[in-house]
């Protein structure tokens, strides 16, 4: 037994290769292969460099277009690109001239954003898909005399009249040219709602105010509206820190999300899509104290 124990004690396993031993990061063969490929690419690009050198002073985009039209190929066989020409010019120690940027016409305005478009068209027409779901959701809110202090062409009050509530309603807009379109609604004024004297007493308010003045519209409405105050605004309107503090005590009772993003209509007959913002109706009720209720309107409401 002792001899057997000595045999096990003297036994040693063959050394295993250390798979974690450091290896050289680069091997000479790989470096030589890379250098050879680079040299071959330079050799293939020499004819292209000669052609580019003959087009001295031309913009890169013109050089690219001319080379591809003439059937030239990049060093690796692909089409000539902007980077191909830029690298070739760098090897020759040259820089391609940049084409002069066209100056915008004096007074021209960008129309890439909703706000910029509002400056161009001055007014948005609220599409029916934005207010019909609200009128169907709570018809009892829209009983009695209604008002729209930013009425535009009066389409929302006109829809309420078509449902049997004859008013008389009050429609206001700051633009003189809207007065003729509002004549069949009832009392019509053309004034700045926030500075006008003694707005008419009303039972409810329904409006799509200017984006940046919605809070001021709500505060002014509380002075002459005895019932629901319905404001159409983007969902993000409620998220700023200062406005969130105001909304907690402003009587906000309902946040009713629209089923789809509106496509604003403009006087030219076109439509402007809102690809970024979702919208909701913010409904303020008198003497409301507590958290608002959130719901989702639908086309079937």
UniProtKB/TrEMBL annotation:
GO molecular function: methyltransferase activity; nucleic acid binding
InterPro entries: DNA_methylase_N6_adenine_CS (IPR002052), SAM-dependent_MTases_sf (IPR029063)
Domain of life (superkingdom): Bacteria
GO biological processes: methylation
Gene3D superfamilies: Vaccinia Virus protein VP39
Stated name of the protein: Uncharacterized protein
């Amino acid at each position: 037994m002792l001899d057997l124990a000595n045999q096990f004690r003297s036994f040693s396993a063959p050394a295993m290769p250390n798979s974690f031993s450091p290896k050289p990061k680069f091997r000479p063969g790989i470096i030589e292969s890379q250098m050879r490929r680079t040299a071959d690419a330079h050799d293939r690009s020499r004819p292209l460099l000669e052609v580019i050198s003959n087009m001295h002073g031309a913009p890169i985009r013109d050089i690219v277009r001319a080379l591809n039209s003439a059937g030239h190929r990049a060093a690796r066989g692909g089409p000539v690109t902007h980077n191909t020409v830029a690298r070739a010019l760098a090897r020759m120690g040259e820089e391609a001239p940049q084409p002069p940027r066209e100056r915008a016409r004096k007074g021209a305005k960008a129309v890439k954003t909703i706000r910029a478009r509002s400056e161009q068209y001055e007014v948005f027409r609220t599409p029916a898909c934005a207010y019909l779901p609200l009128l169907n959701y709570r018809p009892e809110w829209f009983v009695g005399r209604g008002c729209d202090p930013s009425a535009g062409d009066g389409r929302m009050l006109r829809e309420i009249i078509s449902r049997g509530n004859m008013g008389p309603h009050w429609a206001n807009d700051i633009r003189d040219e809207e007065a003729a379109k509002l004549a069949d609604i009832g009392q019509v004024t053309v004034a700045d709602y926030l500075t006008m004297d003694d707005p008419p007493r009303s039972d409810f308010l329904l409006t799509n105010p200017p984006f940046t003045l919605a809070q001021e519209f709500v505060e002014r409405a509380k002075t002459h509206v005895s019932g629901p105050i319905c404001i159409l605004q983007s969902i993000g309107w409620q998220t700023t820190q200062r406005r969130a503090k105001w909304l907690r005590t402003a009587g906000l009772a309902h946040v009713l999300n629209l089923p789809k993003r509106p496509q604003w209509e403009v006087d030219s007959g076109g439509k402007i899509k809102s690809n970024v913002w979702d919208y909701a109706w913010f409904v303020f009720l008198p003497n409301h104290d507590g958290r608002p209720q959130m719901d989702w309107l639908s086309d079937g409401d």
